[in-house]
Amino acid sequence: VYVGPLKALVRERIKDWRKKFVSKLGKSLVELTGDYTPDMMALQRADIVCTTPEKWDGISRNWRQRRYVRSVALLVLDEIHLLGEDRGPVLEAIVSRMRYISTQTKHAVRIVGLSTALANPRDLADWLGIGIGGVGLFNFKPAVRPVPLRAHIQSYANKFYCPRMAMMNKPAYQAIMTHSLTKPVLIFVSSRRQTRLTAFDLIGQLAGDDPRQFVHCDDKELAAAIDRVRDSHLKHTLSFGIGMHHAGLYDGDRDICERLFGEAKIQVLVSTSTLAWGVNLPAHLVIIKGTEYFDPKLKRYVDFPITDVLQMMGRAGRPQFDQEGRAVIMVEDSKKDFYKKFLYEPFPVESSLPDALTDHLNAEIVSGAIRTKHQAVNWIGWTYFYRRLRMNPAYYGCELPPQVTAKDTAAVAAVCDEFISDMLDDHLADLVEAQCIELTPAAEVDRTEQLDEDRDETAVVTPLTLGRIMSYYYLSHRTAFVMAENVHATMSVEDVLQTLCSCREYDELPVRHNEDEINQALLEKCRYNATHMNGHVDEPGCKANILLQLHFSRLPMPISDYNTDLKSVLDQAIRILQALIDYSADAGFLFSTLNIMALCQMIVQGRWHDGSSLLMLPHITAANAATLCAALGGSSGGDGAGVGAFVAAPDK
Asked: What pLDDT score does 640 carry?
C-alpha cells in the first residue's frame, strides 16, 4: 500500500508504476482516492494499492471485516514529515493502527517512511518500529540531493501583502535574467490571482527586451497549442512563453501548460504551491515569490509550512540536465533569519494528533479497538504523539511542576501520563455531548462476567448510532452535534439544505477577499435565505448554501474560482446527506428522510425538486416548459406536466 498526501502525487506514482509493475511484471495496481473507489473484489485481488491518507484511514477502520487490510505486507508512506501539518493526524492514525493490527494478527507489516531531513529521526524511527540499533534508519543532511542546490534569500521591508508582492515582480524578472537566462523557471505564488498578476507583470518587463525570449518552439506549434486553450488570460500569457498552473484552470489547459513546460517549449511557469507536491516538473531555477498565503478561516495572511517551502525548493535542479539547481526565496524582512536557519538545518517534526484526537478516538471505539478508558490510554501509547509528549511536554501544553526536571524521566513520564488521562476525559466528554458514545462510569459497570486477567477497573465506552454513522462516512464529531441539534420529524427541503451547509466539513471552504460582496449580490438570485441558519455572507456555510442554490437553478458562476468551490461542495454533499438519511431513518422520521433523499437527487441532477422534469431536456428553458405545460393543460411545476405527459400527447 502506497500512501501519498495528495491525489496528484498518487496519480504521478500510478503513472510511473503502471509502466514498471503492471506492464513488465504483470502485477495488479488499484487507485483508491476521492475520484476512484474500486469495489471490494478489485481491492482483494490487487497487488498494489495507491491511496491518499484519508481513504486508507476510512477503509482500515473496519479492518476486522476486511481481509485485504489484515493481509498488507508493505506500507509506504510518502512525505511522512507532514505529521506536523493538517493531515498529520490521519498519517499518525494509519501507522498506529497498522502496527496494532500486526500485533493482533501476528502478521508482520513492513513500514517504509519517506521524508525530508529531520532533527529528531530517532523518535520517528521508534514509532515506526525500527529497533534500538537503528538498522533501517537513514537520515541524510539537507545538502544531500541528486543535484546540488544553491539558495538565495531576498527580503522586502513593506509590511503590507499586496504592495510587497508587487515589489517582488521586478526582482523576479532580474533573477531569471541572472540565474536562468534560457533554462526552465518555476515561480511559486500564494494564490490563483497572483499567478495572473505575476505573469502579466513579467510580460510588461519583457517589453523592454525581447518579447519572444521565453518562447522556445516554432510559432505554428505554439499557436496550435494556444488554440486549444479555453482560458483567455492563459492564451495571452502563453504567447509570450509564460504558462500558469492552478486548480481554477480547466484540466485541458493545465495539461497543455504541463506539456509545453515539460518539453521546454515555454521557459516560465507561474504556479500555486500545489504544483510542488503534485506534478513532477523540475526546473533549473525556482523562485518562491512570498512565503505567506491568505487563510480564510483565520481571515489573515499566515506563513507557508516550512515543509511546503522545502518542497518548492526541491523542484530546483533537473537530474541529467543540470550540474546545479538555483532557488530564490523572497520573504518579508522580519522572516529572513528564520529561513536562513531552517533551510539549511534539519527541522524537528512534532505531532498534530491532539487537534483531531476526538474523531480518531471515535473511530477506534466504533471499530472495537477501544472499549474502556484504560484501552484508550493504551491506544495513545501506539502514537507518535505519545513519544513526542515525553520528549517535549511544553509544546503540547503539559507543564512540568517546578520540582520535576527534564532529566528525571520517570517523573516526566508520570506527569505526561496524568496529562493524557485528563485530556482523554475531555475528548470522551466531547463525544458524549455529540451523542456519539455512551460512557458508563467505573463504579456502575457490572464486572461479574469478566475474567481476572481481563479485569479493567476504568469507565466503559459504548458507541452509539450517531458515532457509528460519523465513523462510517468519515465525518467530524462536530457534524454529529449539528445533526443531533437540527434533525427533526418535519424537516422541509430548505431545513435539510441549511443543516447540510452547517456541517463542519464546509468550515474549510474559502471565502476570499471581496467575495462577501459577490455573495451578497448572489443572495438576490437565491430561492431560500442562505443567511437564516448559515451565518453572514462571509461565512463558509452561507457560501456553500448559495453555491448549491445556483447549482439547482443552473445559473452561471460569477467567477471561475466559484466553479472550483462548487466542485468541492458537491464532493462532500452526498456523503453528508447519506449520513443524514441514516440518522433520520434510524430515528423513524419518514417525512424528513424523504426530503433528504430529494435533496440528494437535486444535487445529482442539478435541478429543484419541484421543477418541471421538462427542464432536464436540452434547450428547454423555464419559459419553454411553461408554454408546453400550458398546452398540455397542466402547471409548469412538478412532474404532473413533465416529460411523461409531453410524450403521451404528441398531437398537442
From this structure: 46
Nearest to 226 by CA among 218, 235, 217: 235
Q: Is the pLDDT of residue 492 over 80?
A: yes
Which of these, 446, 439, 406, lies nearest to 424 by C-alpha position?
Answer: 439
Instruction: Give, for 331, the enclosing helix (H) or strand (E).
Output: strand 325-332
Q: Is 554 strand, coil or helix?
A: coil
Q: Give me the pLDDT at residue 482, please.
A: 94
Average pLDDT over residues 34-48: 83
> Nearest 5°: phi and psi at 403?
-80, -5
Q: State the cell numbers at 596.
A: 433528504
Mean pLDDT over each residue of the chain, to the nearest integer: 87
Please give the angle made by the CA atoms of 112, 128 and 66, to the nearest 5 degrees: 75
460-463/437-440 β-pairing:
antiparallel
651: its cell numbers: 398531437
Phi-psi map region of 347: left, alpha, beta (phi>0 left; psi -120 to 50 alpha): beta
In angstroms, the Cα distances linking 537 to 69, 122, 297, 360, 564 are 44, 48, 14, 32, 18
- The angle that helices 590-605 and 493-502 make with each other, rounded to 10 degrees, is 70
| CA-wise closest residue to 6 among 245, 273, 262, 195 | 273
SS3 118: strand
What are the residue ranges of helices labelled H in 169-301? 169-179, 192-206, 219-227, 232-238, 251-262, 274-277
What whole-number distance in Å separates Cα of residue 88 and Cα of residue 500? 27
Which string of b and e fits 219-244 if b means at least 16 CB within 10 Å? Answer: eeebeebbeebebeebebbbbbbbbb
Helix (H, G, I), strand (E, B) or coil at 381: coil
Q: Supply the pTM of this predicted model.
A: 0.82
Residues ≥6 apart with Cβ < 8 Å to 375: 369, 456
Residue 410 and residue 429: Cα distance in Å, rounded? 29
- Residue 495 burial (CB < 10 Å; 0-12/13-18/19+)? buried
What Cα–Cα distance (Å) separates residue 347 from each residue in 119, 139, 307, 338? 5, 12, 9, 12
Which position has the grid cell 488521562? 421
> Pick from 444, 539, 530: which is nearest to 494 by CA?
530
Q: Cα–Cα distance between 570 and 222 in angstroms, integer?
A: 36
- Whether the CB-CB separation of 50 and 78 falls below 8 Å is answered with no
Q: Are 586 and 618 in contact (CB under 8 A)?
A: no
Amino acid at 611: G
